[in-house]
Amino acid sequence: MKKITNIFVVFIFVNTLIFFLSTLSYGKVVSNKIILGAAISLSGKYALTGTHTKNGYDFAIKTINDLGGIRVGGKTYQLEIQYYDDESNSSKANALLGRLVQHEGIDFLLGTSNLNSSIAAAEEVKRFSVPMIDANTFSKSLFDKNNNNVFRISGPEDENMNLVIDLISNKNTNSSVAIIFEQDLFFQDVKSSITEKIKDYNFNIVFEGDLPNDVKDIKETLKKIQVAIPDLLIISANSDYSMKVLEEIVELKIHIPMIAIQNCNSDISMKEKNLSDIQEYIICPAQWHKTLAYQDDIFGSTNDYAKQFENNYNYDPPSHVAQSSAAVLLYKDVLERADSFDANKIKDALTKTDLMTFFGPIKFNENGHNIYKQFLLIQIQEGKNMIVAPEKFADTELIFPMPKMPD
Fold first, then answer.
1. Class of residue 363 by CB neighbours under 10 A (exposed 0-12, middle 13-18, buried 19+)
2. 69 vs 62: CA distance, rounded Å
3. What are 70-83's pLDDT values in tens digits?
4. Are 132 and 123 in contact (CB under 8 A)?
5. CA distances from 299 to 10, 51, 123, 134, 372 (A)
6. In this structure, which topology does domain 28-155+291-362 adopt according to CATH?
7. CA 151, 153, 157: angle at the middle one, nearest 5?
8. For the chain, which residues make up each domain, given as ranges?
9. Mean pLDDT of 342-366
10. Other Cβ atoms within 10 Å of 229 Cβ, number
């Protein structure tokens, strides 16, 4: 009887140990390298944002490694990233996140570069219970109070465009608005947020519609907008599509006093397009700018960061680049504070984050959202992105209305 009891005790102990070990998760470390993982859009319609995201990650990795790397457990490590291209496909992003965790053994993840992929990724990291720091994709479709694995350093981007409505209200209290949106979950979130904001001011929506799947059909939509004579046109679409819409506006010589697009990445593309007639007046939202007064011990000031990045990549970093670098910097901070590669300890350290960076302050609420949100409006003036709102951050005056294009 005693022998049976001992066998039973050993059985219970072994099974408890197996269960305990199965709940442990450790980041991938190879020799002196800590491997992070990211599935981002390096091809497809979100490729431009994906490229900015990758450049921001890579620049931060290089900077941190050049300054000595990361200290964990009394040993110095370098950072490295394993990338997969999700081809702007959320189903593929889901599969690739699973591959990073299950087959590559990478438990420290960085965020995707578009909302649809981010929703898929959030479900995967929840399933595997591993941490992800998401830098660039956040809107109301991602509010999940039951997912304690994803930590988002940016504010809800669908709220960012609301500042445009506040801005034009200061110029015209009886404005008419036309809004066109890509048929994509994130842009539909923006649409919902903006229409609610417009109601606050009792503005007149003179045109509202989804952008056609075939960009060749955009001319007919724009002709309808031209007849409606709006004071403000809001174009909420990916960077490439926004550029095509603006090209058609120039070709058709449609005069609209204010035009806002979703993504400040597009100022780079404008220099390559025939958009000189309107380039100087386009409005776009952002969550970071090089003139903000933040700094840290790795990148220095916001302006230091911008100069260093431009020296390496030959362009002025938009917000998505800076947000991506801040995500990598946060991994350095939590790994050193946790002094461990245990994924649960990393998540615990993330919940206790109170960090000042060149991007701005980072501190998470109980849902993993950064409590410090900074929404900015940028206007392209003399080929440069300039802050025009809110007033406390503005470094120049808004140019309004947009001058009419020459015949």
1. middle
2. 9
3. 999 999 999 999 99
4. no
5. 54, 21, 33, 20, 20
6. Rossmann fold (3.40.50)
7. 110
8. 28-155+291-362, 159-286+376-389
9. 96
10. 14
